[in-house]
Each structure stands twice: as C-alpha cells, then as structure tokens.
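task queued by scheduler; priority normal; single chain, no ligands, no partner chains; default sampling; output format set to structure tokens
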Amino acid sequence: MTEQTTLNDPSSLPPASAHDDTEQPPPETRGTLVQRTLAEWRNLAILGGPILIAQLAQMANGVIDTVMAGNASATDLTGVAIGSSLWAPLFLLFMGTLNALQPIISGHNGARRTDKVMPVAWQGIYIALGCSVLMILLLTQVRPVLDLLQLDPASASITQGYLRAFAWGIPALLLMIAIRGLTDGLGHTRIIMVFSLLQASINLPLNYIFIYGKLGVPAMGGIGCGWATAISLWVALGALLIYLNRSRIFRQFHYWPARQRPNPAEIKRLLRLGVPIGVTIFVEASMFSVIALFLAPLGPTIVAGHQIALNVVSVVFMVPLSLGLALTLRISYLLGAGTPDTARLLARSSLLLGMTVALLFASLLFVGREPIAALYSQEDGVRRVAAQLILFAALFQIADVIQVTAISALRGYRDTRVPLLIMLLSFWGVCLPLGYTLTFTDWLLPAQGAPGFWVGLTVGLICASLMLTARLFLFQTRSEPEAS
C-alpha cells in the first residue's frame, strides 16, 4: 500500500491502540451535519481550554511584575514597563515563527507518521536557540533606544538592568515554545498549561524576594523582576523536560535519544511557514504601540483611558485566540488524517462559532463598560474616556474574532504568506492612516480624538475579516488535495 493511499484513506490507517495517548479524537464521519459540527466544536473546546488557561497564566506574569514593581516605586514601574514593551514584540515575532511547529507536527500525528515528529521537533529546537541569540543581542544593546525615548537616568538604568537579567531566561522561554510545538501538536495542550501555571506560581515569590530584598537577598527593585522571571522560566523548563523524559505518553518522543542534527532543508521549510506568522503577530502588536504613541500628545487622561480599553480587549481576546490556536491544530490533524471534508466543515463552521462568541463578549462590554472602567480607575475623566472606548471595542469584536478565526484556519492549511499581506494592508494601509485622519484632522469629520483611532481599528479589522474569510473559502476549494 502506498503512502499516498494511507494519507488520503482513513480506513487504511492501522487502528489506534487503546493505550495510544498521542492521538486527537478521530473525526466523526457518521451522524447528521449538526452532530458532526458539534462533535468538532467539542474537540476545539477540549484543545482550546488548556491553551486559554496557559495564555492567562502568561498574562498573569505581566500583572504580577506591574503590581509588585509599582509598589516598589514609580521609577521601578517605569523601568519594568519600558523593558516589557521592548522585549514583548520581539518575543511575539519569534514565538510566531516557532508556531510553525504545531500544524506540521499535528499533520504528522493525524497521518500517524510519528517517525517524522521528532526530526521536526529537533529542528524547532535549533530555530529556538538561534532566535534566543538574536533576542539576547538586541535586548542587551538597548541604550540607543532609551536615549531616543529620553528616559530619565534612573528609569533607563532600571530598564537596562531588568532586560539584562531577563535575557538570562530567554533561551528557556523560547525552548518552552519549541517544546510546546511537540506537546500541542500531539494534542496534549494541558501539559504547557500546567507548566505555565508552575512558572507563574514561582515568579510571584521570587519577585517578592528579589524586588524587596528578602531572605538575605539585596533589594533590587524593578531589576529583580527580570531575575525572578529568568529563574522561574528555567525551573519550569527543567520540570517540563523531566516530565517528558519520564512520561509514558511521551516514551517514544524522548528528546535526547531521538536527537537529530540540524537539517537546513527542514529548518528552511519551518521558517518559510513560521516567519510570516511571526511577522503577522508582530505587525498587529506594534500597531497598538504606535497608536499609543500617537495619542500621547492628547494628554495623560486620554492615554490612560486608551490603555484601560486596550487591556480589557486584550483579556477578552484570549478566548478567540485560544480557539484559533486549537483550530490550527485540529485542521492540521484532519488534513493529515486524510479527511479534508471534515476539515472544511470545521473551518467554515468555526466562523459561526467565533461570531457567537464575539456577540456574547460584545454584549457584555456594551452593558458593563462603565463598571469595567471603574475597576481600573477612580478618576472621573479617565473612567469616561475608558467607557467610551470600551464601547468602540464592543463594536469591533465581531470583525476581530472573525479575522483571528479565519487566519488560524488558514494556518492549519499552512497558508501564511497571503494572510500576512492581508494583515499588512488592513492595519498599516487602512487602520493607521484612517485612524490618524479621524483623530487629528478635519478632512473627513471634525477631529474625533482617541475614538478616531478606534474607528480606524474597526474599519481595518472589517477589511481583514472579509479578505481572510474569502481567502479561506478560495484556498480550501483550490488546494485541499495538495494540503492533505
């Protein structure tokens, strides 16, 4: 029997062992359309739930650092905030690049070609190490950037110290992302959830020790946040490697016995898929940073209200983002299993699921915008601005969720370059120019202030959602046999 027959005919695959824990649930081929759709939605929930918790655990680290550094001093908080704003976009760029591992490994898992899993995983390790070197070099040479920002000497010194300490943990951070490609790709999304929670729980007491100087350790202020994060990352990585080495589930995927040499062809293949993902995420994240800089001349009240609304949106976005990550895994698996019809059903029905989620959150934000704003600030002016902008955030929820759902499905089909171009056009070609025009000029309407940028965001996201949805339908029709 040929390999092509095996990949395209699920009935030709050997039956899974009752003890085979490396499989996602097989596709449901019987039942009505509604029953099959609900079964796939249930699989998305099983995959996406742990991903959501892991994402929230990672966000919790930022909250912990912000609160504890802020209690040390305003200068420490400024240093940590600037440092975080410098490393976060770079991390998103490299994380997105490594996210190419999930669809490829999930596809091999669906095809039951587990012999191909570890060779791909090892190339991901080499990419992670290369990205670590680049990220460390960039973050330890930030003095020119700090001079450009005209930071006061005390804050600049804390930023540099924080980044130099944090840099020691960068290899552990990116290696965990690479290993996540293996565990998530095999359908075990709960593993990274557990170790993300472990890292966050270690980071909290270490912050207390290093920031405030406890247990004989000198007080480091904001710089201590960097050391706490670095140490907690290495502890979590070590615990993860020990688990994988001893786990019965991963006995055939032990890293060191299955080690591979660098394979330039496989690395190039991963980068060709992953770099557009990383750049797409970087473009979106940098756009929000640019908007914040543009709003700075409007005063601290406007900037504070904008940051509150942005933080609310970021928390809410974790749900559709987790759904999207699970969707990428599932579609890759279904294509590898030779069931493109089920993959197409899931890709299209997930748009309906995403729209349902978006309507729910939009309603909650619309009704609760004022109480939510009050949770963040006691200043009336800031609360009014935040509540107004949260209203705009509620309006663009539908377009935002549709675009992340569509682009995640396309990643499952390993289509990343055209979606990158769509996002560049939507954000940098539509959102920012329109937002700037509405915010600061009278060319289209009287100058709107901060709401102008949020209108620009909404229009840009609508453009992205329409083009990505069209791309999803057209790409499936043209390329399903090749993808599977």
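post-processing summary
- Residues 49-262 form one domain.
- DSSP finds 17 helices and no strands in the chain.
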